[in-house]
Amino acid sequence: MTAIDFYTRVADRLQIAARLVAKAFAQHGRVRVLTPDAAATDALDRMLWMQPAIAFLPHCRLDSRLALETPIWVDHALEHTGPAVVLINLHDAPPPFFSRFERLAEIAGLDEAHVASARERYRFYRERGYPLRTHDLSERI
């Protein structure tokens, strides 16, 4: 069953997503990030080229010709057909394919819309019996 971690009170969702990508890649090897739209996909793509400064996180979009050879996928497409262990969700709804992953990281921002959608996702997973953990990041960098 998919283990789900909620990261709450996040000031910069993309920055936390980038940190989680690096950690998940180091620990599990294959990571999928679901972004809410093309702009977020582009922004996270750029961020992963620059962070961490002394490392490289091999990533691409789902439609890349290198996708099957690349361990990190960043995209806003609501589909997933390849292998991955960790899913990082920046979308407002539960990903339709989340149960195929060992771990799911949900990132909730500070504004009311992000908080409300995160509460709905939390309720959705809880009602289905998924193990849930929360991490309050309000006092972290």
Count of distinct strands: 7
Strand content: 15-25%
Order of helices and strands: EHEHEEEEHE
Class from secondary-structure proportions: alpha/beta
The coarse silhouette is: globular
Strand order of the largest sheet: 3-4-2-5-6-1-7
Q: How many DSSP H or I helices?
A: 3
Task: Please identify which CATH superfamily we are dealing with.
Answer: DNA polymerase III subunit chi
Straight-line N-to-C gap: 31 Å
- Report the helical percentage: 25-40%
CATH class: Alpha Beta
Largest sheet: 7 strands, parallel
Query: Any idea of the CATH topology?
Result: Rossmann fold
Which runs of at least 5 residues are low in confidence (pLDDT < 50)? none
Mean pLDDT metric: 92
Backbone CA Rg: 14 Å
Give a short summary of the structure.
With 141 residues, this protein is of the alpha/beta class. It has a single domain, classed as 3-Layer(aba) Sandwich (Rossmann fold), CATH 3.40.50.10110.
What does the model show?
The chain is of the alpha/beta class and 141 residues long. Strands 3-4-2-5-6-1-7 form a 7-stranded parallel sheet, sandwiched between helices. The termini are far apart. The protein contains 3 helices and 7 strands. Helix 1 packs across helix 2 (38-50). It has a single domain (3-136), classed as DNA polymerase III subunit chi (Rossmann fold, 3-Layer(aba) Sandwich). The chain has helices at 13-28, 38-50, 112-127; strands at 3-10, 31-34, 59-60, 72-75, 86-89, 103-109, 132-136.
